[in-house]
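thread: overnight batch results

M.L. [08:02]
morning all. the overnight job finished for the chain we discussed friday. pasting input first so we're all looking at the same thing
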Amino acid sequence: MIVVNTDFVSGYEIEAVLGMVSGNTVRAKHFGRDIMARFTQIVGGEITGYTEMLSEAREEALGRMAAEAEKLGADAVINTRFSTSGIMENAAEVMAYGTAVRLSSGQMPT
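M.L. [08:03]
and the structure it wrote out:
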């Protein structure tokens, strides 16, 4: 599955637009991460526990979006974007969304 944030895939033509697809995940803070985050706020620096948590959440959201596109018979997702929002005090949602397309011309992606 090709996933790009452009409105085209180089070397291919869009044969069909299959519709918008998305994938999301909601992650809650781990108590230990929360304690370390509060300490880091005092002394300054990167809150690596949260950085890792959000990186994992983005990958999971991308995977879910790609799986939805595959169900539609897509070869690629174009115009991919991310959205992040706070759901409640200790939880955040990460969403990936884009347009599922079927490609033509040239060799198909694997």
